[in-house]
From TrEMBL:
Cited InterPro entries: NADH_UbQ_OxRdtase_chain4L/K, NUOK/Mnh_C1-like
Keyword Membrane annotated: yes
Entry similarity comment: Belongs to the complex I subunit 4L family.
HAMAP family reported for this sequence: NDH1_NuoK
Organism: Haloferax marinisediminis
Any one Gene Ontology BP term: ATP synthesis coupled electron transport
Protein name: NADH-quinone oxidoreductase subunit NuoK
This protein's UniProt keywords: Membrane, Oxidoreductase, Transmembrane, Transmembrane helix, Transport
GO MF annotations, alphabetized: oxidoreductase activity, acting on NAD(P)H
Localization, UniProt: Membrane
EC number(s) stated in the UniProt entry for this protein: 1.6.5.11
Chain segments annotated as transmembrane: 6-23, 30-54, 60-84
Length: 100
């Protein structure tokens, strides 16, 4: 049996990788992937605590988080397509000209 601390360490590592990707990259696709990593880290925490406490509430919230992630990807891909069409690339630093 795997101790619960291992799941928390894994979740913290995945969250830190996602946060590092979000802070250091300029590519919009990598932004989207980094946010997905952070959401998956939250899911690992929810399921780990759900298992620890012996109820399914955390697993239910994990399913809702997966649905939120799917909706976020759909909206994010739409934004990335508009960014690519308008600026011929997915660099988010070029999109500052879209401000009014």
């Amino acid at each position: 049996m795997v101790p619960g601390q291992y799941y928390l360490v894994l979740s913290a590592a995945v969250f830190c990788i996602g946060l590092f990707g979000l802070l250091t990259r300029r590519n919009a696709l990598l932004f989207l992937m980094s946010v997905e990593l952070m959401l998956n880290a939250a899911n690992i925490n929810l399921v780990a605590f759900s298992y620890y406490w012996g109820n399914v509430t955390g697993q239910t919230f994990g399913l809702f988080t997966m649905a939120l992630a799917a909706a976020e990807v759909a909206v994010g891909i739409g934004i990335i397509l508009v960014l690519y069409r308008n600026f011929d690339g997915v660099d988010v630093t070029e999109a500052t000209t879209m401000r009014w």
